[in-house]
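Q: What structure does this chain adopt?
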Amino acid sequence: MEYKIKDTSIYYEIHGEGKPVICIHGYTVDHNLMKSCLEPVFKDEKTPYKRIYIDLPGMGKSKAAPWLKNADIMLDILLDFINYVTDGENFLLAAESYGCYLSMGILKKISHQTDGIFFLAPCIISDYTKRNLPLESTVYSEKITDSVEFEEEIKEFGEMAVIITNNTWTDYKNNILPSIKSADKNFLAFYRENGYGFSFEDDFESLVYSKPSAIITGRQDDSVGYKDMLRLLDNFPRAGFSILDGAGHNLQIEQPELFREHFRNWLKRTRY
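A:
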């Protein structure tokens, strides 16, 4: 499906009926990252949920636009889309990495319309040089056996993964790598350089959110870390906060069982 806004369009998918769950992926990837890790949980849920997976502009099947110059504008697009797709109904919010950063803006603007948030490897500080990050490390590695055509991609995967196995590589290859290759690299480079952060990022310090929340981070995540989000934990009085060992920025494929259990628990708590 497509949502038209000005001269561009936003691609999204809806699966199921019931309570809306807006699912927002991170930077350079697309909705398949969220769908691949969340659908295995939802298929076992007895409570009905309407899962709404979006491709952010310039990623996946959503087109970029010259006027989309910064995160404030990106947030406006998301707010318009949410209003359209929910028709004012309250919703749950599940996000990953930069999607969490954008979600902080959503909470600032319309927290009253949300009934809970789930943050996966959240990005909270836009400036990479100001993030509190652990040193790069690999916890476990085995030789990847795949076609020679993926030699360069396997090398790049090995440089960022914490758990390097054929299983984690296959998940990455199927659900993350295609979106990275198809992203609008020129747009993303310009956006990253000129408008990646909100004009109101400092307001994160005073944002308080009191509905059921889950924040899942990787102990070895050298992309966004875990300490910056941990510093804001008191701002989320109903949040469970987990730091998973043996997990980097793609912790949903490195610790899938733990990830799914945390997500199930969060869904349960939003029904209290």
